Amino acid sequence: PQVGTTTFRPPYHPISMGAIAGDARGDLFKPIRKTPMHDWIDTHGGVWEPVADWRRPYCFQQADETVKQAVTREILNTRNSVGLLDASTLGKIIVKGPDAARFLDMLYTNLMSTLPVGKCRYGLMCSENGFLSDDGVVARLAEDIFLCHTTSGGSDRIHAWMEEWLQTEWWDWKVYTANVTEQYAQIGVVGPNARKVLEAMGVEDMDISAEGMPFMTFQNGKIAGIKARPYRISFSGELSFEVAVPASQGLAFWQAALKA
Question: Whole-prediction pTM value?
């Protein structure tokens, strides 16, 4: 035609919408996000429960156990000794820049600008209507770098919410955000013997003693020869460390912790 033709892009030939959508039904209706330990958990008796787009083990059933019995056994073992938790599903968002601190002050109900480097603070986020939107622990990695933990189902939504404010209201603020949820595996080592397990795994370049690493602090170093950032935080009421490692090393750390 006189107006010319379109710039052809694949697919060159007409296809049905069904071919584009694929077999979006059954298990493929919504793909499941998997942590680095997912396959190990699946082959070791993990009873799955949905956590947003993820799956997390509700418990590990042993032979002839009911789910309730398995849960009770794991609770008692954690209270009296130690337990492991795959916490990789929790959201992790980097907020960086000269205006990062005052930006977070606008998002959380409490101040994050007063948080010292190397420490953590629990925070709540509310919507514009004042309803609770999300929560999590914020760690100050450097003077201008924060790591915000969110709920498992909240990382994408909260990251988009942050970007909405930055792009529409505070567009001149110098803040950069990045959703790094899948870049890290996070393993909770929980219980009275949690510190002993980490020490048995081999701790390098860190002091994880009660004096050297008090509650709501973190350090960077190596555990079991793996680059790690243990946070001394807990939602169990017991001595607990949540250890972040590169996702590619998540399974290796998990197995090393079990061996210890």
Answer: 0.86
